[in-house]
Amino acid sequence: MLKSVILIPHVARTATRQALENATRILDELGVSYSVDPTQEQSFSPAPELVISLGGDGTFLAAAEKAREFDVPVIGFNTGHMGFLTEVGVTDFSQAITQLATGEFTTQARYCVELSVMRKDGQVSHHWALNEAAILRTSLQRPGNFTLGVNQHPVSQYAADGMLISTPTGSTAYAFSAGGPIMWPDVPALLVVPLAAHGLFTRPLVLGPESEVEVGLDPEQRTGIEMLLDSRRSVTLNASDQVSAKLACQPLKVATLSEVDFSSRLVSKFQLPVEGWRKN
């Protein structure tokens, strides 16, 4: 039996508020301590053992930040729209909460990307993302000018709206919308997707697990550039800044209640046509 969990709800939705009421009721009945959307300063006793998101994929990404902070699993309950990252629908809610509280779940490791930003003056800051780092121009007047390197070797230059550095998990998110391939979440790889780039060499690149990606901003860059991490956290970039990225040593632990194959999740979430599969 778990002793303590964190609940991260999207309270603007009626369905989420109802789900939150059900969750807290069941946890109270089972004697499991919980905290709802805790602040950074809040202390925990006992320490949380699981983070539960109630909402859509955006809420799951918020919950993932808290889960990674405590190095505990996270699971998503879908009260939103597509909810590709979420595990449980509201119809299975009560049973799922009980299973989680009694520890009847397994965990999967999801690759994250860790990033370093080196400034012109030598200062370095460190960041991470579960889905992607989106390096984007902030003005429509001029494109961003980027150089791409892999493992200390130059690859190409781009005049583009931006550059995406995506994980396998993020390959079904922004990178997918930008024309990138879908990668199964257990593939140890990074995906680089130029966004609306001018030139002939603008295809997405899939890089191996030991690869280190470098995206440099042109020294004469005049358009503002922002790096968005999972569309939740932002870092302002300046001319001559360098962003390096690689697979993170610390993966995200994702709790699961079933052994649904990723292929089945794709079919379900994207409503893919598979009626003729192996009929003969």
TrEMBL record:
GO terms for biological process: NAD+ metabolic process; NADP+ biosynthetic process. NAD(+) binds at D57, G58, N131, E132, R142, D161, T172, A173, Y174, A175, F176, S177, A196. Its cofactor is a divalent metal cation. Gene3D superfamilies: Probable inorganic polyphosphate/atp-NAD kinase, domain 1, Probable inorganic polyphosphate/atp-NAD kinase, domain 2. Keywords: ATP-binding, Cytoplasm, Kinase, NAD, NADP, Nucleotide-binding, Transferase. It is an enzyme of class 2 (transferase). Pfam families: NAD_kinase, NAD_kinase_C. The active site is at D57 (proton acceptor). It comes from the Bacteria. Signal peptide: none annotated. GO terms for molecular function: ATP binding; metal ion binding; NAD binding; NAD+ kinase activity. InterPro entries: ATP-NAD_kinase_N, ATP-NAD_kinase_PpnK-typ_C, NAD/diacylglycerol_kinase_sf, NADK. Its EC number is 2.7.1.23. SUPFAM superfamilies: NAD kinase/diacylglycerol kinase-like. It catalyses: NAD(+) + ATP = ADP + NADP(+) + H(+). One of its GO terms (cellular component) is cytoplasm. It is found in: Cytoplasm. Involved in the regulation of the intracellular balance of NAD and NADP, and is a key enzyme in the biosynthesis of NADP. Catalyzes specifically the phosphorylation on 2'-hydroxyl of the adenosine moiety of NAD to yield NADP. Belongs to the NAD kinase family. This is NAD kinase. The lineage of its organism: Bacteria, Bacillati, Actinomycetota, Actinomycetes, Actinomycetales.
